[in-house]
Amino acid sequence: MKPGRQDREPATWTATRAGPPRCGVPGPPLTRFVSSHGGRVSMKRLMKFGAVAATMLFSAGAAHAWLLQGNVRCADWSPVIGATVRVVSTDPNMPFNVTAVTDSTGRYTIHLLEQPACYHETLEGVNGGNGGYLEPVAAYYDFCTKDATTIERNWAIICPPPPPPPPGKEGKCWMTGGGQVQIRTGLHSYGGNVNPGCSPTAGEGGNWNHIAHDLNLHFQGRAIQVVRCGNVEGIPAGSTSPKTPYNFIEFTGTGRLVGINGNKASYPKVYFFGRVEDRAEPGSKGQRAVDAKDRYFLQVYSNPANPAGSTLLLVDQDGNPNTVDPVAVLNGNLQIHVTGCAKPRNASGSQSGDLDLSASSNVAEGRAWLGAVTPNPVATHAIFNFALPRATGVTLHVYDIGGRLASDVADDVMSAGSHSVDWDLRDDAGIKVSPGIYFVRLTVEGQTLSRTISVR
């Protein structure tokens, strides 16, 4: 630095024009800048300085961060929980390999690099079911970060059916009974039937009534479906009167809730979930063991997307709508039945024997197989043999020669492999069918197979 240079005032710049302006007409464009120290610089050079300064200012600001998020769902919009989403950078100079696991709503979130980059996204922990991926059909996403700070990538897959229940733990049943419970909201009375005769179509699945005496409310369940039948952990399996392999039933459906005795409440359509436990005999009065008393749970709500937040009526031990805690029965009796329900002899998926050549060929090609009915003609019991290429939903129906449904023999999820189902020649009402020709129809994933049977 030259002597005395540090004593000079900082330079200021003044723009000069190529010529004077004319009246009413803008003057010529600025062509140079003149320093207070006498120096000049061109407009081109000044713009270059400005660009450099702007770049430095942008770089000194906050870093640009990108967020990747989305949902993983089945074709029926139900969430896929616990699926792993993996995102990998496709630029070898920008290493990035991160995974995220979907939560209870099927949603995931991944924070990407703070610099623009390109990525490859895949889904792990699921196989896409029988039909693979619906979105994206290629089973992966390739994308780059540029402008938007939030990137949404959703997945939709054809989910495989749930596995069949363990043998002897869950299956089909129906329920009858009634009684009373006493909880913090007062006295409650209830009764009716669920899935009568093990027929989901009889009376729209049954009828259930519940009166909350102190709340002046009357609930009527009018369309009912069984969720599952099984056994309560910690107590002996099954029930004794009548003798069945199960001691609890869970059911759901729709109905209405109205006020009584001056209560003006009116909900023409509500949703509900119930659970009944047939633990022992007697189920209430006379039963000294607390754990042996029958139990009952009911939750009535107005919004199926938010049952806990829209609960209108709740029968539960602790009053928490997020948990199922059945209450011990005060008076009454609840009974679980299996009469009329299908009894698959091999529903657990264990092999009943080697598949014959035709069955093996069909299963290897991914198709179901229905064997000949034995014996045929039949007088007392018929055996239906079939094989499945994978775990899936199965319906096995018997129709009379006029095309009318004679018996819903099986309607359940079964495992891959060979199966044998016994039919006692009774219809859904429990009455033995008349002699004649009948048709057996097996339906699996849109595939329908038929056989003929002669009843003597």
Structural summary, described in words:
- This protein has 456 residues and is mainly β.
- The chain folds into 3 domains: 67-157, Sandwich (Immunoglobulin-like); 170-337, no CATH class; 343-455, Sandwich (Immunoglobulin-like).
- It is built from 2 helices and 33 strands.
- It has helices at 43-60, 357-364; strands spanning 13-17, 30-35, 40-42, 67-74, 84-89, 97-101, 107-111, 118-124, 133-135, 141-144, 150-152, 155-157, 170-171, 174-183, 186-194, 206-212, 217-230, 239-240, 243-244, 248-259, 266-277, 295-301, 311-315, 327-328, 331-337, 343-344, 369-370, 382-388, 392-400, 405-414, 417-423, 436-444, 447-455.
- The strands form 7 sheets. Strands 13, 14, 15, 16, 17, 20, 21, 22, 23, 24 and 25 form an 11-stranded antiparallel beta sheet that branches. Strands 4, 7, 9, 11 and 12 form a 5-stranded mixed beta sheet that branches.
- The radius of gyration is 36 Å and the shape is flat.
